# Entry
Amino acid sequence: MKKIISFESFKSFAFFSPFACFLAGVTGGLFQAVKGLGILLPLSLILFFMGIIKADRLRTYLLCIISFIVPYYFAQFSFLFTLTDYVPFSPLLSFGIATFVVILVTVVESVIFLLPMLFGFNFKGTLIRCVAVSLLFVLGEHFLELLPIFPFPWSRVENAFAYKPAVIETASLFGGSFAAFIILFSSSLIAAGIINRKTPSKCCFCLLFGLALFLSNAATGQILLLKNHQEGKPIYVMVVQTSIEGREKDNVSPREMAEGCARLIRDNFTSGTELIILPETAVCTRPTNTTAFLPLINAAKETGAVIITGCFTDKDDKSYNSLIAIEPDGSISESFDKGLLVPFGEYAPILDEYFAMNDLSPGEKIKSLETSVGKIAAAICIESVLPFSISEQCRDGCGLLIVPTNDSWFGQSGGRELHFRHCVLRAIESGRYLLRSGNCGISAIISPKGEILNAEYSKNEAVLSQTVYYTTQNTLYTRLGDVIILPSLIILAAGIAKFIKYAVLKIRLKLL
# Structure
């Protein structure tokens, strides 16, 4: 008769560790997804690293990673269940499709993340494994930017601290990925200290090192926060938030959309306003439809302000999700075209007869908006999750960031707030003021310190006004990029080399 599993065997590492990592993944995903709980993420990371550091067999090591990352991503991507409101099938079938999408995205993201993490097992010492796995974790999140169909680094580690500027202010030096590495490495050291609790010298060293590293990063961030960001040309701006749900736009004419925006501008205009930002596709037509755009052209002439609005444009038999700037003289700038499109929302890889809503094409190159106020860096909606596009525009001389978006399709889920956090990171990394105009929220004006100066979280119409500063002074990160990726790649190469060495040695031993 087989022996029943005892409490002692339950406590054994091989049995308990994957379960602990699963618990870490569930709680970590919830800490990321629920507003206000992000600062608790290190607690989950400590539990995860305890399993990773102690794993002495590849099977256990992989099981620990998979047990963590799958529930971690699934909890974060659960907002995609809002797709049930947009899929043109029965409620049951729509729910089934949404469930499939959530599982598919979770699996794809998990596999991409797992690829570099796999080689962390080849680093055996406690300290070196702490360093290696932390770097590979950062690299795994970075790889999510490089997916060919849908780059989707939705909730990086650093995003959990978006409302704690001191912790992530070092992103202005070396990027959000560097801040994430500090958080990860600190958590892994504390995990190592707990593991070595029976060896006081090792325990104290790891715990003190981890705490000192985290606090040093926060202290450096606090020093950086003291920098005066009221430099450059002051500009009084207006951010307009509309409230037309995405599904309702087909029932509202482009002219009515433009008139609604013009009404909000006139009713809330303050003398001296130079720049007005409207949401993504605030007017669902092309600038060639002058009748539709006339209310905004007149508003620009009457106020003397530059109005930037989302719309569609056509070039070379292709359609784009774009931004245009309407100047006070009524002229219209060249468009900024969205380069990262949302599958099944803006284009359809499959089943195009059901999902090809606008049959849009991605913008072919990154370029900024040229206005009389100055060059402005832009990211439309989901593009705000990718830092490289904004950094490239800043290096090209842009002095202000804008993120027009349509987050109405998130519904009541936490997706809106998760999306919003990226804007805080982009403002810190670039050292620029960021203006976010959201259809149905969240709209905000964010300082280069990551401070939310003004914000509207409701789904109602709203207008935000604020003085910001136009500056072309680049941060160290804007100039250098994600420098932490280089040591991460070196660690990955070393891990692959070790893996090949062990594999060759194993083959030779078998041949002998």
The CA atoms of residues 162 and 421 lie 6 Å apart.
